[in-house]
Amino acid sequence: MCIVRIQHGEQQEVGEPQSVRALIVVGIYDPEDSNQGYKDTMTVIQKLYENFLRKPNLDNRYNLKFPVKWDYSEEDSDPYYFAWIDSYWEIPIPVNEQVEELI
Length: 103
What we know:
Blueprint: E1 2-10, E2 18-29, H1 37-54, E3 57-58, E4 62-72, E5 80-91, H2 97-102
Antiparallel strand pairs: 1-2, 2-5, 3-4, 4-5
């Protein structure tokens, strides 16, 4: 499972893009006795991270900003394993329609 959760956002100046903090949580269920689910979880995190580095612009709208951090849960939650990517994205702002009407 993968959940994208918006933590918070801000816009410093009128007309500038917003900066949004997104937490991407990965959860893996692994009922095997070997307790190796953390490996699958970290593999998914690594694949996501590599994809973001190759394509830091999503849908020609959302631009990845650095730093990008990742971490994993060290709590004993067997057979569930969790890790996450903590990221910031620059997102476009809506067009000011009042200005458009004057043009």
